[in-house]
Design brief:
The chain contains 15 helices and 19 strands. By secondary structure, it is of the alpha/beta class. It binds 5'-deoxyadenosine and iron/sulfur cluster.
């Protein structure tokens, strides 16, 4: 069968789709980029905000016409929204054939093949730890690979649906991760991105108390990965701030392949809102970790996630968020307008901040970010930075792009026979938009 697979949402979903694709290919099916030329249409969905759910539902709804014309095609919803809504999705979308939640994705091949034979509409949403072992496969993506090291989340931030749709936190076996990483490197991967809802909780057996200062199984994992010959870079996303034990910080400091960029979700700079979010730190705790990390890794950059318009967020609360963001000086921030998720705790409270205010706060933070990033980029003009080459720039075919370890995008003229996944020194000549421009310096 020819399968079209569309992904919504986060990097974990991207990674799941990669595993779904690899399983289907392994069973003899092929992937198609064209929805009109496929026998099976799969949508890997997201539930984190209402807009994400509406987008996927809208898309599937729109396919009714195609299904009327070609009743033989199969349409499946998989992933987080599939897990959250289950049977309700089948009811809402009468032309949808099957629903596969996050715990059953490792069975996707048999589910699709069975449906093709029996044509019996069905929902698969049981939670299962087997998903860990069944999701190791990956497709060939050149020099960049991703590995999910944990699944699920035990933190229950009050706004968040993830613990409900991805289940309890479990860590994969360290040996399996190392084997997968080595195999990837043997196939040409040079940069590995480690994924988890809270990667720093790796190996802590689902305990929600942050580790003691001399403990960090995640740090130990980084140290083992750092030993892999042929691997150039290791990134990870996202760690929860209070899990940066001294042990983890020392691992970050000592592992030369671990990139100096930390995505450190803040969510809010107001202690009152942080408490209502069940984020177990205060604004000053957060700053203390940032300072500790900067002291250990002087050139480290931080990016973050922030929610504006959480129930009852006042102008003062928002100002605290804004001030803290400016104080930390994030080089990238993802700002989300609060979206109540039925099932998550905060959805029991009125969504009290008007949409216009959410949008205003969003725009203010975006404005701060772009002013700050402009300065950060300008400061690097004249520097020589190390980039891992990616490929031809999407914007200008005459240029290539790469990233610094601190996660700035760099555009440069390629040298003859330049390959993807090679570390190169680039001298920065100018900054423009959100990136740097320069040329390769020959060693
Ligand atoms: N509304 C808005 N943003 C949310 N996030 C998670 N849940 C919600 C929600 N209900 C954001 C958080 C998280 C990021 C992945 O999505 O900032 O870090
Ligand atoms: Fe959601 Fe909080 Fe878990 Fe992140 S740590 S996935 S925000 S519950």
């Amino acid at each position: 069968m020819k399968i079209y697979l569309k992904t919504y949402g986060c990097q974990m979903n991207e990674r799941d789709s990669e595993a779904i694709g690899a399983q289907l290919i392994g069973a003899g099916h092929t992937l198609s980029c064209d929805e009109n030329d496929a026998d099976v249409l799969l949508f890997n969905t997201c539930s984190v905000r209402d807009a994400a759910e509406r987008k996927a539902k809208g898309k599937i709804g729109y396919l009714k016409k195609l299904k009327d014309r070609r009743p033989d095609i199969l349409i499946g919803a998989v992933g987080c929204m599939a897990q959250r809504l289950g049977n309700q999705l089948l009811e809402e979308l009468p032309h949808l054939d099957f629903v596969v939640g996050t715990g059953q994705l490792h069975k996707i091949v048999s589910i699709v093949e069975d449906f093709a034979k029996k044509r019996q509409r069905q929902v698969f949403t049981a939670e299962s730890a087997d998903v860990l072992t069944g999701m190791g496969e990956h497709q060939d993506h050149g020099a960049f690979g991703q590995i999910a090291i944990t699944r699920g989340c035990n933190r229950f931030c009050t706004y968040c649906i993830v613990p409900y749709v991805r289940g309890r936190e479990i860590s994969r076996d360290k040996g399996d991760i190392l084997t997968e990483a080595r195999e990837m490197v043997d196939h040409g991967v040079r940069e590995i991105l480690l994924l988890g809802q809270n990667v720093a909780a790796y190996g802590l057996n689902g305990n929600t108390r942050p580790p003691a200062n001399d403990v960090s199984p995640f740090g130990e994992l980084l140290e083992s990965l750092n030993e892999i010959r042929g691997l150039a870079r290791i990134r990870y996303t996202s760690p929860y701030v209070t899990y940066f034990s001294d042990r983890l910080i020392s691992a970050l400091k000592n592992c030369d392949k671990v990139c100096h960029n930390i995505h450190l979700p803040l969510q809010s700079g107001s202690d009152r809102i942080l408490k209502a979010m069940n984020r177990q730190y205060t604004a000053s705790d957060y700053l203390r970790y940032v300072e500790k990390l900067r002291a250990a890794i002087p050139d480290v950059t931080f990016s973050t996630d922030v929610i504006v318009g959480f129930p009852d967020e006042s102008d003062e609360d928002f100002k605290m968020t804004r001030d803290l963001m400016n104080e930390v000086g994030f080089s990238q921030s993802f700002i989300f307008k609060y979206s109540p998720r039925p099932g998550a705790k905060s959805a029991e409270r009125p969504d009290s901040v008007p949409e216009t205010v959410k949008e205003e706060r969003n725009q203010i933070l975006l404005g701060d970010l772009s002013a700050r990033v402009e300065k950060m980029l300008l400061r690097q003009v004249g520097d020589t930075v190390e980039v891992l080459t990616e490929g031809v720039s999407h914007r200008n075919e005459a240029r290539w792009t790469g990233r610094t370890g601190t996660n700035f995008v760099v555009h440069f003229e390629p040298t003859p026979n330049l390959q993807s996944g090679v570390l190169k020194k680039v001298k920065i000549s100018r900054a423009g938009g959100v990136s740097l421009f320069g040329s390769i310096v020959e060693e």
